[in-house]
Amino acid sequence: MTSTRFISNLRKKGMPILGMLLVFNFLVLKTSFAQLTNGFPNPTSCNSNDLELVSALLSGEDGSCNKCSAGSQISRTLSLKVNNKSGSNRTAFAFWGNLEIYDGTTGLLKSNTPIKGCDGPVIKNSINTFSFQNITYGCGDIVKITNLFMAWTDGSPGSTCDKIISANIAPKCGTLPSITVNAGVNAELIVSNLLCFGKNNGAINMTTLGGTAPYNYSWSATNGGVIPAGQINNEDLYDLGVGTYTVTITDKNNCKSIKSRTITGPGAALSLENCTYTNISCIGNDGSANAGLVSNVVGSIQYNWKNQNNISVGTTANIQNLSADIYTLTVSDNCFIKTCDITLISPTILGIPEAMVTQQPNCKITSGVVSVQSPIGGVTYILTQASITKYTATNGIFNLVEPGNYQLSSTNGNCSSTGNTITINGIPPVPIVNAGIDFSKNCTINLQGKEIGEVNDPAFNYSWSSAEGLSDASSSNPLANPIATTTYTLTKTNIESGCSNSDEVNVTVDNNPVTANAGIDFTKNCTINLQGKEIGELTDPAFTYSWSSGDGLSDASSSNPIANPISSTTYTLTKTNIQSGCSNSDEIIVTVD
Fold first, then answer.
1. CA-CA distance, 118 to 298, in Å (whole number)?
2. Which of 245, 237, 238 is nearest to 263 (CA)?
3. Which pLDDT tens digit goes with each residue over 110-130?
């Protein structure tokens, strides 16, 4: 039997494709049998035309429409119609294939599961209907049986289902690439998206399946889509723009199916940013041109560079070895053409530059100034050392040039020229000055001050910026004995060169007076302060404490001990600053009555 005729006839009749298979049961519902699967013969040997698979359908308990709710799962019985065209009954009809389930919304394959079945007998000269297993799928999904092998006996004439062996079915067999299972009105939609931005050339090619012809169609559009004039009741749509298109299909029995597809396309047209280039250098014929950034390309991209004589000079994005000329780049894809122009020019040859030192370093100015003679506008002048660029100038004046030997050169971006050698003298040495080491003066150390500064050098003059507390403000090493913290700045000047330098020394004076509080005098008798009383002050960790009389004290080194003498006593508290050594005392009298 031939397979091509089955596919063509079934699609013309609108046979539907079922949706996703969620649960697939290999148990046959008719009788207890299992045809044996043990390989298959060469398909070319299956050339019998006795039996023909006419159609496949899923029967529903709700009538011919096979109605269902969107998103629901349905389980229905698979039935096959087989036409026995021979003049004799056949003992059995067996099939093997793949059960394919396609998503009813996207059209994508969701599952592919082996399937087989067998039933009989097959009555002669009639169309026989056989029911097999239940198929579970999603509402609106499409089901196909593909890669079919079908048999009505095997090598043993009169074999029944439990005897048929797949490897032995030739020549009483046939093949079929695919058959769509009718489960009610459905459709397959092939979407052709927009190729080019702004071009309404999208299309939806729909093949109606299942139900009962003839069919009526009603299209609507959302998300920017527009139904072209005169196409609202077409099966297929063309000349579509970007958007979502929804069709309601109604068959002869008023059974309905709704399908939607989205047409997409490029978000923007071909874009070419500005081209860039490098002008010809002094060498000549070495210019280059580069295409700007290209985006939103559809299909393949083509480059073509032409000079002003319309002669092609390159077919790549970037080209080199160009002479002075005007060049046009044409960039094209499968939809649009963009161009950009560049102009390459030949450089100006430079003469030999000359320069002179117009300012050498001194004690106050640590760098020199170099001036180019007769500088040219648009030319950059360069000072280098060991071929390394140190300074550049576009106006012919080099400022702040450090001491050293330099080679002068010039460039206009293409050509360059080497000039004379420039020498910037060394900077006179800066005196080394030492104002001395910072020190502290307090009640115990450096009480009479301390010498600061450095040993006198007769080649230099010395001066101190603050004379307060100094024995001699012009000495290199005076005695510093300030009454308050002071910063002294020593300036040391070379008598011959006039160069000078400064340094600072800080003298910290820490002799702040200490305040001691021994507490308030009190009386102890038989009724008040019987156990004594706390004297002194709160403890400050920056100080030490001592009491001159320890009799009756809980702790003679505490800042606030309990005083409980047996007779009247005068206590003296001495409070000493740990850092400065400065101290002070205070007394308290405890009267015992």
1. 52
2. 245
3. 999 999 999 999 999 999 999
* Tokens 């230099």 belong to residue: 460
Neighbours of 526 (CB within 10 A): 6
Give this prediction's pTM. Answer: 0.49
The string of pLDDT tens digits covering residues 96-110 is 999 999 998 888 999
Question: Which amino acid belongs to residue 391?
Answer: Y
End-to-end CA, the chain: 139
CB burial of 365-381 (b: ≥16 within 10 Å; e: otherwise) equals: eeebbbbbeebeeebeb
Residue 206 has pLDDT above 50, yes or no: yes
Residue-wise DSSP of 499-515? -EEEEEEEEEEE-PPP-
- Listing DSSP states for 122-180 in one string gives B-TTEEEEEEEEEEEEETT-EEEEEEEEEES--SSTT--TTT-BGGG-TTSEEEEEEEE
Residue 351's nearest CA partner among 387, 394, 381 is 381
Q: Are 121 and 158 in contact (CB under 8 A)?
A: no
Could you give the count of Cα atoms lying within 13 Å of 362 in the half-sphere of its Cβ? 6
Residue ranges of alpha helices (H) inside 455-572 are none
Partners of residue 288 on adjacent β-strands? 278
Give yes or no for a contact between 581 and 513, defined as CB atoms under 8 angstroms apart: no
Rounded to 5°, angle at Cα 563 from 557 and 567: 125
pLDDT in tens, 326-377: 999 999 999 999 999 999 998 888 889 999 999 988 888 889 999 999 999 9
- Report the candidate in 318, 266, 276 with the shortest Cα–Cα distance to residue 297: 266
Tokens linked to 357: 């030192």
Residue 188 contacts residue 207 (beta carbons within 8 Å)? yes
Residue 387: count of CB within 10 angstroms of its CB? 7
Q: Minimal CA–CA distance to 381: which of 333, 417, 347, 405?
A: 417
Of 320 and 32, the structure prediction assigns the larger pLDDT to 320
* Positions of E strands within 265-367: 271-272, 276-278, 287-290, 294-295, 302-307, 312-314, 318-322, 325-332, 337-344, 355-359
Which residue reads 């020593």 in tokens? Answer: 490
Token pair, residue 36, equals 């044996």
- DSSP secondary structure of 222-259: ETT--PPTT-TT-SSEEEE-SEEEEEEEE-TT--EEEE
Whether the CB-CB separation of 80 and 132 falls below 8 Å is answered with: yes
Are the C-beta atoms of residues 369 and 357 closer than 8 Å to each other?
A: yes
What letter represents residue 185's amino acid?
A: V
- What would the 3-class secondary structure string for 56-105 be? EEEECCCCCCCCCCCCCEEEEEEEEEEEECCCCCECCEEEEEEEEEECCC
